[in-house]
Amino acid sequence: MPKFQPDDFHGIHAILYALFDAQEKLDRAAMRRQVEICLASGVHGMAALGLATEVAKLTEAERRTIMEWTAQDTAGKVPLAFTIFGSSVAEQISQVRHAESLGADWVILQPPPVGSYGAPEYIRFFGRVAEATDLPVAIQNAPAFFGRGLTSDEIRELVTLHPNIRLIKGEGPVTDIAGLIERTEGRIPVFNGRGGLELTDNFRIGCRGMILAPDGIDHAVRAYQAFRAEDEAAAEAAYERMLPAVVFVMQGIENLICYGKRLFGARAGIQIHDRAPAMRPNEAGLAMVQRFAASLGRLSA
């Protein structure tokens, strides 16, 4: 039985970067410090193995290792989610089983990274994986990043057919997410991402929370807490402080992995190494990283 239930899922959840050493191997100490920093920043949940975690570059064994490390380091302090990556129903169910064994509180299903199919096929795929677990399930709907996704009406059909699909992880502008919330009649909690773009307006339209990489996570937590306390001026101030850096890193997923990860490293005192193939930074980008890191301040555990 998971420690936390869907009603406990709210606020700012961190999605971890994959941190590598100079030999391109996963760096255990750096990954532990990342979790410690996120917890110290006051996050309301932890997640791993999403796009920011470069999940497609990881072997199956490495995905399982990150699950194990994250569960160990989070230690039940906040709800824990794992994004489930896999090209087949069987592969995704295998990953779900490992998440269950480690005490995950929920899982987030990505569409299979192969082919391009119509909505009925994705609805059947997600449904078969969801039926294989008692954990609350979320669907990551990010057509801009995946090149495939579901409409609001198709999501409504999916969650009607499969009651344990309890949440949606969107990746879209506020106007699209507002339409999704309207079409699902507010029956299913929605989290957004996109690095925190339109952060406070996501709260205004009724998003349950945001799932963000940790480069600006402390300011996002402050914005959310202020908004919950009905201090919109303080919420906007916290958001405005992080916004230039968010715009800088959110020019695409590869840009996020290149510069967002380096921004986190600069703020946290962690040296960043890429795993090939990777977008490589240039001097202008590195100068911006240093300027934004100085503006946002130090991250510490």
Nutshell version of this structure?
By secondary structure, this protein is α/β, with parallel strands linked by helices.
Structural class determined from secondary elements: alpha/beta
Order of helices and strands: EHEHEHEHEHHEHEHEHHHH
Largest sheet: 8 strands, parallel, barrel
Average pLDDT rating: 96
Ends distance: 30 Å
By CATH reckoning, the class would read Alpha Beta
Radius of gyration: 18 Å
CATH superfamily: Aldolase class I
Task: Just name the CATH architecture.
Answer: Alpha-Beta Barrel
CATH topology: TIM Barrel
Low-confidence stretches: none
Protein model, in words:
48% of the residues lie in helices and 12% in strands. It is α/β, with parallel strands linked by helices and 301 residues long. Strand 6 (165-170), helix 7 and strand 7 (190-192) form a beta-alpha-beta unit.
Write the layout of secondary structure elements.
Elements: E1 11-15, H1 28-40, E2 45-48, H2 60-74, E3 80-84, H3 89-101, E4 106-109, H4 119-131, E5 137-141, H5 143-146, H6 152-161, E6 165-170, H7 174-183, E7 190-192, H8 199-204, E8 209-212, H9 217-228, H10 232-249, H11 253-268, H12 283-296
Parallel strand pairs: 1-2, 1-8, 2-3, 3-4, 4-5, 5-6, 6-7, 7-8
Helix pairs in contact: 1-2, 3-4, 4-6, 6-7, 9-10, 10-12, 11-12
Which features would summarize this protein structure in a list?
about 300 residues; alpha/beta; globular; 8-stranded parallel β-barrel; TIM Barrel
